[in-house]
Design goal:
Length: 151
């Protein structure tokens, strides 16, 4: 006959196994490499959103207390804008908000190889960005972690 502690442990184990089964394997989330390079731009926080930032997708526009940040394809960003250019952008596979550990599944292995990232969360898609100079290494690292990558 089971005692109370054994029953409690079995119940907790069952609950945890159900939660784990419902949680998609984040180490198998796929990535789709988008065409072209992207720029990470920092404008004055009071700047009106420029028309060029509204002409294509994907574009990320974030206004914080410090700046107006725009991430957009290099080819639409005018010269003279304060930008860090040369980023490559991966679209992250299906990523519902209830899934946890997604950013870590990508960031940890890249950090071990000293590869910086930008992460953009939107609904329903997230984006992972790495510098063009690190692209091939990032693809090898993430593929080795089990993430399928479409080019």
């Amino acid at each position: 006959m089971m005692n109370t502690w054994t029953t409690l442990l079995l119940a907790v184990s069952l609950v945890l196994s159900r939660q784990t089964a419902a949680q998609p394997a984040v180490n198998q989330l796929g990535l789709g490499l988008l065409q072209g390079e992207f720029a990470v731009c920092a404008l004055e926080k009071s700047t009106k959103i420029p028309d060029w930032a509204l002409t294509t997708t994907p574009v990320s526009i974030t206004r914080s207390q410090a700046a107006l940040s725009i991430i957009a394809p290099n080819n639409i960003v005018p010269q003279g804008i304060n930008c860090d250019r040369g980023w490559r952008n991966f679209e992250v596979g299906f990523n519902p908000p209830s899934v946890f550990g997604v950013v870590a599944a990508f960031a940890r292995p890249l950090a071990r190889k000293h590869i910086s990232i930008h992460w953009i969360s939107s609904s329903p898609t997230d984006y992972l960005m790495v510098k063009q100079a690190n692209l091939e290494t990032a693809i090898r690292v993430l593929s080795a972690e089990g993430h399928p990558i479409r080019r």
